UniProtKB/TrEMBL annotation:
This is Delta(24)-sterol reductase. Residues 60-234 form the FAD-binding PCMH-type domain. GO terms for cellular component: endoplasmic reticulum membrane; Golgi membrane. It comes from Tychaedon coryphoeus (Karoo scrub-robin). The lineage of its organism: Eukaryota, Metazoa, Chordata, Craniata, Vertebrata. It catalyses: 5alpha-cholest-8-en-3beta-ol + NADP(+) = zymosterol + NADPH + H(+); lanosterol + NADPH + H(+) = 24,25-dihydrolanosterol + NADP(+). Its main location: endoplasmic reticulum. It is an enzyme of class 1 (oxidoreductase).
Amino acid sequence: MSALWSVGAGLLLLLLWVRHRGLEAVLVHHRWVFVCFFLLPLSILFDIYYQLRAWAVWRLHSAPRQHAQRVRHIQEQVREWKKEGSKRYMCTGRPGWLTVSLRVGKYKKTHKNIMINLMDVLEVDSERQVVRVEPLVTMGQLTAHLNPMGWTLPVVPELDDLTVGGLIMGTGIESSSHIYGLFQHTCVAYELVLADGSLVRCSPTENSDLFYAVPWSCGTLGFLVAAEIKMIPAKKYVKIHYEPVRGLQKICEKFTEESKKKENSFVEGLLYSLDEAVIMTGVLTDEAEQSKINRIGSYYKPWFFKHVEKYLKADRTGVEYIPSRHYYHRHTRSIFWELQDIIPFGNNPVFRYLFGWMVPPKISLLKLTQGEAIRKLYEQHHVVQDMLVPMKSLEKSIQTFHVDLNVYPIWLCPFILPNNPGMVHPKGNETELYVDIGAYGEPKSKQFEARASMRQMEKFVRSVHGFQMLYADCYMTREEFWDMFDGSLYHKLREQMNCKDAFPEVYDKICKAARH
């Protein structure tokens, strides 16, 4: 009883303090208070609900039976939109705050919302080594489902809450992408409801133009209702080798060298300053030295990027065995390194042991509760950007990031980019090695100004024939956007499938110059 009185008194004091300071002031300057006391518990409840739901659906085998019925309901909504005169563009009815992207989708308020309740794993085909899933299945849900069956995906994008639909309509990458390419390159078929309400299946051999045009289209060609994704056999551990490297030229040389080695199952780099990095390589294995097993995903463990930094500070190499699922979601608990700006003491051992099991807060809930003041603050003083550039331009790209942004750590992730049709492909006629440069945090560059600095970055990326991930803030003009991306197939299909009255052009949906 005394414990309850203490908790009650503590909450009362907290509420009085919030009232005294003002809710907006607390949310902006002491956001950790709101996150720790409200969003973390709410995130736990959110997770429990979806895990129980997924378990119940699979145990009752209801997902495959209900999938066709749900798709028919989507088709009916589209046909109803046509009967109403096709007066507004269509979009999914999923609330904008539920997406992992930090961008707020204002178009949801003006477009016809089509409700799409598709969040189940439909089938695991071991013979074909393919898993068929609905678009709202998350990476956390899918790896938890496949790993006990002895399977995993070739490319498992990092954060638990990333959805299959978002990774196809946008893009996804992981440290295995130097072998398998982007997430879209591991997909073998898509099923979509088109602007006329018809259901089509597309693959490299069936409706191939549509298959190659869907990635990066951000839902502007049709509604994704299912996808078939390749699987590979899972192994228990990732044997990971940490190597600190100093000097920008040496960092780029070492990273390029390791990225070209197909014997490396995984390659990743964390850049802690302009000339200090740790390059990590990993291989899948079922055997492990017990003394070197590191269950880095456990709630009480240090955040991964902080753990990696220890090798840099000690100036030593190291080898560890990380359980595979822990490795796939190694940056999830700290949302890469974004959580240190929200909960500054989040990596403190005391906090980890007492409250680490509740971390991280849901990105969707952070968006929902951020308010206009925080949104503007983040927009002007915070960057979350992934730029995809040819590996041969890595050194010049890092120098540009340093001058224009000066944000560290920087994430380096290599990927192979095949010369397939679609919006994103190499400049030449051959497959080329690229690298994702991820900058997340508060820029330290004195001349940083959100719009001007990002336009400068976008100009540089275009000059080296690179690409900007479309989940992030984009400041390009329409001409600049289509200079970066190849719109030939995309525009051809929008014309052929009568998409122009049904869906906005991808530029109008995601670029700031079009949305403001």
